[in-house]
Design goal:
By secondary structure, this protein is of the alpha+beta class. It has a single domain, classed as 3-Layer(aba) Sandwich (Rossmann fold). The chain has four helices and two strands, in the order ααβαβα. The radius of gyration is 15 Å and the shape is elongated. Helix 3 links the parallel strand 1 and strand 2.
């Protein structure tokens, strides 16, 4: 099973643009990818779980996640409020 097949099986992918190119890239080499999380409260919550799970699945297939949690917003809350 490929990483894309697993993500689809779990219902985590609805649509992919240039799907064949992405599958080829992910099967040919391990990629480093970025996930930026900007918490709207003083901590993470269940709303962040989907993207974190996708990152974990990609990591299981040998890809390297770079996860950055926004410190300022997490520390002071949503500045737009």
């Amino acid at each position: 099973m490929t990483v894309i097949e697993e993500l689809k099986k779990r219902g985590l992918i609805e649509q992919i643009i240039f799907e064949e190119d992405l599958i080829e890239k992910l099967e040919k080499e391990n990629i480093t990818f970025y996930l930026g999380i900007d918490p709207t409260a003083d901590s993470l919550h269940v709303g962040h779980l989907v993207s974190i799970n996708v990152a974990k699945i990609l990591q299981k297939y040998g890809h390297k996640p770079l996860i950055l949690v926004g410190g300022a917003t997490g520390g002071i809350g949503d500045p737009s409020r």
